[in-house]
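Anyone up for a design puzzle?
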């Protein structure tokens, strides 16, 4: 028995020493098998699929969705040998619903928390819609030391709202209308967006998918009412031009030219012009939600981008 206790204690000491050797970045955050707890005590849900020694790709989702919206791309790339990581933005999906901090700075900080907690490097950051803003703000705040590539898919960059310096943007009344509809009946708002402009189902001849509409609604209703409301200002009024100026890694911009939610001319085209050397791929006739409606093409375009030197 004494020998057993001695051996057990020796093993325990060895385990403590091994745990202490974890990098300081990872040690800054508490992590369980599916959650990272940020410095301001917000629990961020994440998925980590594919081989753990694979090249890492992170996915940042759009409003008001969750990491579930990336499942087609994640499954495809994981099957190609990539390690794919996606999180639910604070206030969305399965993550905590904090009253404050529903802004792009915190969104970028949360992405950093996931990257640091999982201790990954040479990451390709992929962001859709609001998630594209999250990727841009991450690079703006933290640079590209851990970033190998970036991809902006139907992204809200560089600036959506109309201002004196951005005369081609959308009028503030557009976003006030979304806020009013959100307060009035956000469940109906999500159904209306999904059954109309998001997937282009309001276009003549469109093949409407009730499954995609219901999936959008389900993901949206999982988010907090305050969080998804605040996020409207975050994605519409944040100026990402200073962030895009800091991009110094290969960057892919993908956008549909029939995007009724984030119009191509003020977003995809403008972002590609502002990021030096960016590769722009325009999907003719594609709507905002092209990660679903054009998933096979997007999967292949992402794979080609990841395999490029």
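Challenge accepted. My sequence:
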């Amino acid at each position: 028995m004494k020998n057993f206790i001695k051996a057990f204690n020796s093993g325990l000491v060895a385990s403590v020493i091994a745990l202490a050797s974890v990098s300081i970045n990872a040690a800054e955050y508490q992590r369980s098998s599916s959650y990272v707890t940020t410095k301001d005590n917000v629990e961020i849900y994440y998925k980590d699929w594919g081989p753990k020694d694979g090249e890492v790709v992170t996915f940042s989702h759009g409003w008001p969705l969750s990491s579930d919206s990336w499942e087609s791309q994640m499954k495809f790339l994981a099957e190609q040998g990539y390690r794919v990581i996606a999180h639910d933005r604070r206030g969305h999906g399965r993550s905590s619903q904090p009253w404050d901090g529903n802004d792009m700075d915190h969104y970028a900080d949360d992405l950093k928390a996931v990257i640091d907690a999982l201790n990954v490097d040479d990451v390709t950051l992929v962001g859709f819609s609001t998630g594209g803003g999250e990727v841009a703000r991450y690079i703006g705040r933290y640079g590209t030391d851990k970033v190998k590539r970036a991809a902006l898919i139907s992204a809200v960059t560089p600036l959506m709202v109309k201002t004196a310096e951005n005369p081609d943007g959308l009028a503030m009344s557009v976003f006030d209308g979304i806020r009013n509809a959100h307060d009035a009946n956000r469940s109906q708002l999500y159904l209306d967006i999904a059954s109309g402009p998001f997937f282009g189902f309001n276009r003549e001849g469109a093949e409407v998918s009730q499954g995609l509409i219901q999936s959008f609604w389900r993901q949206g209703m999982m988010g907090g009412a305050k969080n998804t409301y605040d996020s409207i200002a975050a994605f519409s009024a944040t100026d990402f031009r200073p962030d895009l100026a800091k991009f110094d890694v290969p960057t892919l911009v993908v956008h549909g030219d029939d995007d009724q939610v984030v119009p191509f001319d003020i977003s995809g085209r403008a972002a590609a012009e502002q990021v030096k050397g960016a590769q722009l791929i325009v999907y003719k006739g594609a709507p905002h939600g092209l990660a679903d409606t054009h998933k096979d093409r997007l999967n292949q375009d992402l794979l080609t981008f990841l395999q490029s030197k």
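A detail worth pointing out: The beta strands are 30-31, 35-37, 43-49, 56-60, 83-87, 123-128, 147-153, 251-256, 279-283.
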